[in-house]
Amino acid sequence: MFVAVAAFSLMDALLKLFAAHYPPIQVTAIRALASLPFLLVPLWYRGRLAELRPQRIGLHLLRGALGILMLVTFIMALRDASLSSVYSLYMSAPLLIAVLAALLLKEKVDVGRWLAIVVGLIGVLIILQPRPDGLPLLAGLTAALSALCYAFAAITARILTRSEKSPAIVFTFLLIIALVAGAIAMPNWIPIRDTDWWLIVAAGGFGAAGQHYITEAFRHAPAAVVAPVEYTALLWGIAIDWAAWSLWPNSTVLGGASLVIAAGIYVAWREQRP
Prior knowledge:
The model has no long low-confidence stretch (mean pLDDT about 90). The chain is mainly alpha-helical. It has helices at about 1-20, 25-45, 55-80, 85-90, 95-105, 110-130, 135-160, 165-185, 195-220, 225, 235-245, 250-270. The relative contact order is 0.22. It has one domain (about 1-270). The protein has twelve helices and no strands.
């Protein structure tokens, strides 16, 4: 899980670099296109392409639309804010998933988890509060919207796993994003610079590595053990911000992130208790 989080963090750093030169919708299309070969080639080699066939087309389309909005708003946030600031808000996604699971899937959420969710959302409000050296308001709102879309997409994925194979869920998700975002971006498509092609391949590779290792992590250990490691993304965000852009998160972001992380770890722990 630690390797997976590192891979995804490095991929996000590349998306931030792309966002400085290309529109967010184009970066979204590039992100999906770069990942498709890393999914298709191993399945082709193993003779498992039949697993890509989707069953519930409508739900796949809904998840693809959520994915486009999630990535566009995430990239917009990355363009205008630091990795660590965006991650601080994005860490509220597990709390949002717990809320949506209770409301939409009728999963039971006890009083302790509801209190933790409230504490986590207070942390989000602390991060979003305006101050001269704080997170830009628009970047904060787009990051929060992206986290909400991620939570909805996770709920749809949970429903799809009841009838679909994992390769079909991932492939259809990436394909819809690539086709729709690519079509929207095409009229204003900016030619890819020669120096960026290897970065695009690297982004696809990091994304594929992250997906592989996160799957292995959940395969070999309980979610309550694995999920909290995802919060090391904040450490990676801080390190990458410092190394690449000489940025350091302020005390408000760190304070709010601490509440969000503590609430998320508590919710993950409570979910695994009998």
